[in-house]
Amino acid sequence: MSQSNVFIFIIFIPLSFSQSARGKECVCDLKNLDPPFPKNELTKVETTALQCIETITSEKMTDLDRLVLGLQQRIKQLEDNVILLEKEDNSNLYGAVSLRIIELEIIEIQELLGKLKRTTNDYQHLSVQTAAQLEDMKDTMAELEKFDKMQVLKKYRESRIKKNLDHCKDKLKATAAPPTASSGRCGLGRVVNVAGPRTHSLTVFGTSYPYGAWGRDANPAPGDENKYWLVVLSSSNVYGNLIRQYGTLSTIILGLGPTDKYISSSNPTTNTIQGPNMVMYGNALYYNCYNTYSVCQFNMTTRSVSTVALPNDAGYNNKFPFAHLGYTYGYTDIDFATDESGVYVIYATTSNFGNVIISKVETSNPPVLNQTWSTSLHKRTVTNTFMVCGVLYATRYLDKEIEEIFYSYDTKTNKERYDLRIHIKKMQTNIEFLNYDPRDHLLYVYSDAYILTYQLIFQ
After folding, report:
1. Which letter, b or e, does each residue of 274-290 get, where b requires 16 or more Cβ atoms within 10 Å of its Cβ?
2. What are the CB-based long-range contacts (under 8 Å, 24+) for 32-40?
3. In whole numbers, what is the pLDDT of the chain averaged over residues?
4. pTM, whole model, 2 decimals?
């Protein structure tokens, strides 16, 4: 049920009147032959619809999925412990300890089963209740439509159906490829706020690996729409060679069933990952190649690497990293971003005095640098960047709890702003990775070993 449904009633009120003369004045007495419009009934329908929207949310629907996955994980652990017990001598003290562990595992599984049963019952009750509410609203709206004497609603529906059919016919006749959104023309408006976090979870690698990146493919292959990827910089918090993929959000949170792909068997070496800034687009990972000022494209299917060099005065190896007073985000000279139109690389050069430069990356094989924009934003005053609808947004560190989106550059108009003041509520001190997903309008964040998502609010 959508909150955008608006019911419009145009009421034709039949009147009767009588006319009489009082001195030099004519007086008309009007009488409404229909009963008054039941405004309270319409208010009741609107209230019920809002309650449905607040009650049924995607976050609540995910709870059941997480419980089932958690239960599967605990059962697998129980099986492993039973196998271990079978290998031990029962007369040994270790066998008794293992038996006690198994007993505790069974108790925890029983608690999970109880919670799963309660959650399932709640959802069944919610489903029955919602179905009854929808039926009641349907009957109420049918009664209210009787007041539509001029049949405005009927004509409106017929018009909408005809319009939709005409639109469908036009789409069937079209032979041109679907257009990609041009810079600054997505129809979303400018970013005005950030809500969340909606997701907040420690990765399976633990707090020992504070640098990394994660997200979804901004232009996935058919069948891969729900996949998530994760890269943790496992060597000196700088280098990586392993890309992990998960089937759903729940599995990446629980760390279940990953698929691993290695860029190279050793780390670091030629063409492996340097720094936490990377994106996935069109089944390929885009990142800064090890020890070079080049863009690497790693094809996830063929496991082949192709590169394109940035200008030879582009900063790399900590020459122009993201930073704030007292802290530098190591090896973040070259950043990557996705938006509705593709992939961008954000970097700085000495010829531009260390200020940020934006280049569009054509996702061919090998990749090619296309249009480029120069800004007045010095890169070492920034902690991260992302792109939305052809507009670059930059963040800075305010304190341990707040990161601020303070700057924007519109590649369509070449206009810069330094006065945005949009706050991001942090759960950890530092944000090492941040990128926008044009498919769900979320910011994907890697923050001191935690993965998070935030909802962008548009004007």
Report:
1. bbbbbbbbbbbbbbbbb
2. 34/147, 37/9, 37/11, 37/147, 38/143, 38/144
3. 83
4. 0.63
